[in-house]
Amino acid sequence: MRARLVAVSAIAVGALLAGCQSTVPGNPQGSGANPAEPSVPTSQPTRTTPSTPPPSPPSSPSATAAPPRQTLAPQNGYVFIATRSGQTRCQISSTNVGCEAPFSNAPQVDGEPANGVEVTADGHLRWILGNLGDIPVVTIDYSTYSAQGWTIVATEDGTRFTNDATHHGMSVATQGAEAF
Q: Sorted alphabetically, which keywords does the UniProt record give (predicted)?
């Protein structure tokens, strides 16, 4: 039985080796003076792993990375911005931030609904009537910015201004404003 198994195995190995030849019979034929390589479509391999490694976790539970900030340059001591929606325009100085918008929930000032709000670096909020006029605004996107000692975080839900020294400021949206 064992001898028979060895004989069958030897025949199978011999048959496999007989199919492995290093030459192919035939005569190669060219297709002219400048033969072109055949065009064979190939598929690109798919990548299942991300091209960049995932971020490493913070070294301690209290360590968090600050979002990147774009610094906005002042003009005559002010930075003038408009939100991505175009609904809110603001002027930012080192001491305060004033914004105007079509607020839907503003208090009355001198018998009129307020169209402006101002916050000081110490967090004092004041509703006002007024018009910023034709200011040279920079339209900001939903991102984080720095201007005149304030951090500005713009999102779809509104814009938050935080004084870097006092950590006071305000959140502004067309629905209203709130100091902190």
A: Signal
